């Protein structure tokens, strides 16, 4: 297939949505699936508050009527109703909390999964646009904040509307003037006061979300970089910046507390006004013979019970600003353009793996990292990609494992454009051993089983043998259950790379990309590890990306990159026979090491 050197190729017959990012589901989609539970929770909450209103109203009537000493049988229904409303209030409240939290946690679980899936689509090429601590805050705090939309905003407002309307209707049936007074007071307490709360605390609430995220980011960076910051005397400045963020959070919390206090005062005033208005209207009605004196207690107590429906609305309204800010921060992740087009097919085969006229650009970069690169990988073939730092080697590795899509040219697997395939399915066939391989803070066994969770101990040791580290693992008191520490801090750099190699071997990838696997190692250890890497991956297609040239003589082809372009390619002997960057680098490396790297270096223990 001819390559288009100016723009990325669109595979013939590709689905229409192939070139566009997949539409991200939002929390609203999860809420739609949990609508039944949310409606049930609202109904139960309305029932619980309705029982509270009915309990107080019935109790007022019962006390007033009992003062007249009627026959006991006349009070039996009211007594039973009081008991029923009392039990129903507690029971319905418990079930409402159970159902409401269940629905909300389902929504949050689905939302968190989608946010993580989106981050996985963005990583690692597009993730540098976000600071690590900030991503943590978005993934944890901002997702958790979304629960307030359902538990503290939508459900309380919906319940308040239902119970408030019924309370007003009940008061109006007894005394229209009392119903009108209650309606006005509820509008003040349920609409005006929350609005004032939002206007007063909106800025503080938005700043709280942003400052909390900044505090998390700073704390994470401070903890991760503590040794370097202390060594360079910069820890004090970071701690002072952290203290300033904490003081900003305190000021925001104080402003929010002031708004909450104002809302509570206004709600209390509205409640008192409703009670006084009901009392005045009720007394006048009793005096004029329009209201039974026994019902006066009901008319007066009803506003007290009804205002329970709006008491929490100012807090709910205050939460709205936080939810909106968290929504906006999560929307930034959803809106970020994935660096890789996600197809849906699974590759039946990998070979030949062909790059033709490929160019690549990192997200946000103004210049291309690779230009006009041609590469062909066949089964069992070994290719060494060499070049100085910044030559484009790691960009090529990112292309091969589909962390990045070509910005020009074509990339095909077994003759089909790679955009057809699910990136995860491609990575099941093209393995990656990074220059700074990540080890999880758990045991050697669990770190290896990342590649194959079902692998047994014989398979684990077979992979360790291939990586030339099995004897060291056997010598450990805990063996495979030895913890490696956070990011592998309890093992040496060479041991970390060998464990990462064992993980790649265990996975059984047909294609292995070794991206600077000997970085940060001393030359003898680096050269020994290179030879072991090549031995462990023998029989598989291997792309060795390295700045050192020792071991390249065992490659079937050597590709020299400079400035994102291929400047030389050929076998080791052919490249040494001509003047060029490979020969210059080879001679410099031999001179600097004080030895000839063409011979097999003596293995040096870690």
TrEMBL record:
The keyword ATP-binding applies. It holds the Pfam family ABC_tran. Coiled coil: none annotated. The keyword Transmembrane helix applies. It is found in: Cell membrane. Keywords: ATP-binding, Membrane, Nucleotide-binding, Transmembrane, Transmembrane helix. It is a multi-pass membrane protein. It comes from the Bacteria. Residues 39-322 form the ABC transmembrane type-1 domain. Its main location: membrane. The chain crosses the membrane at residues 38-63, 75-92, 155-174, 180-198, 257-282, 294-316. InterPro entries: AAA+_ATPase, ABC1_TM_dom, ABC1_TM_sf, ABC_CydC/D, ABC_transporter-like_ATP-bd, ABC_transporter-like_CS, P-loop_NTPase, Type_1_exporter. Residues 1-21 are annotated as: Disordered. SMART domains: AAA. Residues 353-588 form the ABC transporter domain. This is Thiol reductant ABC exporter subunit CydC.
């Amino acid at each position: 297939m001819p390559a288009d050197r100016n723009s990325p190729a669109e595979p013939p017959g590709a689905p229409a949505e192939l070139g566009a990012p997949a539409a991200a589901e939002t929390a609203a989609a999860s809420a739609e699936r949990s609508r039944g539970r949310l409606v049930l929770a609202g109904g139960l909450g309305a029932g619980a508050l309705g029982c509270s209103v009915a309990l107080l109203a019935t109790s007022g009537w019962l006390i007033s009527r009992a003062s007249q000493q009627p026959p006991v049988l006349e009070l039996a229904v009211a007594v039973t109703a009081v008991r029923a409303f009392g039990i129903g209030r507690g029971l319905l409240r418990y079930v409402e909390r159970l159902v409401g939290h269940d629905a909300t946690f389902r929504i949050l679980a689905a939302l968190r999964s989608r946010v993580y899936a989106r981050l996985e689509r963005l990583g690692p090429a597009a993730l540098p646009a976000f600071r690590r601590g900030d991503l943590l805050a978005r993934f944890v705090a901002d997702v958790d904040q979304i629960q307030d939309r359902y538990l503290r905003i939508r459900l309380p407002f919906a319940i308040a509307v239902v119970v408030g309307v019924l309370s007003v209707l009940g008061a109006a049936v007894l005394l229209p003037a009392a119903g009108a007074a209650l309606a006005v007071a509820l509008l003040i307490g349920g609409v005006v006061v929350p609005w004032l709360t939002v206007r007063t605390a909106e800025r503080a609430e938005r700043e709280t979300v942003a400052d909390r995220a900044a505090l998390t980011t700073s704390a994470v960076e401070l903890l991760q970089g503590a040794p370097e910051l202390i060594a360079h005397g910069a820890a004090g400045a970071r701690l002072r910046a952290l203290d300033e963020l904490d003081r900003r959070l305190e000021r925001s919390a104080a402003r929010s507390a002031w708004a909450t206090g104002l809302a509570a005062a206004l709600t209390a005033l509205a409640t008192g006004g409703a009670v006084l208005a009901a009392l005045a209207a009720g007394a006048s009605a009793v005096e004029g013979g329009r209201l039974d004196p026994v019902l006066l207690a009901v008319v007066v107590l009803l506003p007290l019970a009804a205002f329970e429906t709006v008491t929490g609305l100012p807090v709910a309204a205050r939460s709205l600003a936080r939810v909106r800010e968290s929504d906006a921060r999560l929307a930034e992740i959803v809106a970020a353009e994935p660096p890789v087009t996600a197809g849906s097919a699974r590759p039946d085969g990998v070979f030949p793996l062909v790059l033709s006229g490929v160019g690549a650009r990192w997200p946000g970069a103004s210049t291309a990292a690779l230009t006009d690169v041609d590469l062909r990988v066949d089964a069992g073939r070994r290719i060494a990609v060499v070049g100085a730092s910044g030559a484009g080697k790691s960009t090529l590795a990112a292309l091969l494992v589909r962390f990045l899509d070509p910005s020009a040219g074509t990339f095909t697997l077994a003759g089909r454009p790679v955009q057809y395939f699910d990136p995860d399915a491609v990575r099941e066939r093209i393995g990656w051993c990074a220059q700074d391989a990540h080890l999880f803070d758990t045991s050697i066994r669990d770190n290896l089983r990342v590649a194959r969770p079902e692998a047994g101990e014989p398979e684990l040791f077979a992979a360790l043998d291939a990586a030339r580290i099995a004897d060291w693992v056997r010598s450990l008191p805990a063996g495979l259950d030895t913890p490696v520490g956070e990011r592998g801090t309890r093992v040496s750099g060479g041991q970390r790379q060998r464990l990462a190699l064992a993980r790649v071997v265990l996975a059984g990838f047909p294609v292995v990309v070794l991206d600077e696997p000997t970085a940060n190692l001393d030359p003898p250890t680096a050269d020994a590890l290179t030879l072991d890497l090549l031995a462990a991956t023998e029989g598989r297609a291997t792309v060795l990306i390295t700045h050192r040239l020792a071991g390249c003589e065992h490659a079937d082809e050597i590709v020299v990159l400079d400035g994102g372009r291929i400047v030389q390619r050929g076998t080791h002997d052919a490249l040494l026979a001509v003047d060029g960057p490979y020969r210059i680098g080879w001679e410099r490396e031999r001179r600097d090491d004080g030895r000839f790297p063409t011979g097999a270096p003596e293995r040096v223990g870690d």
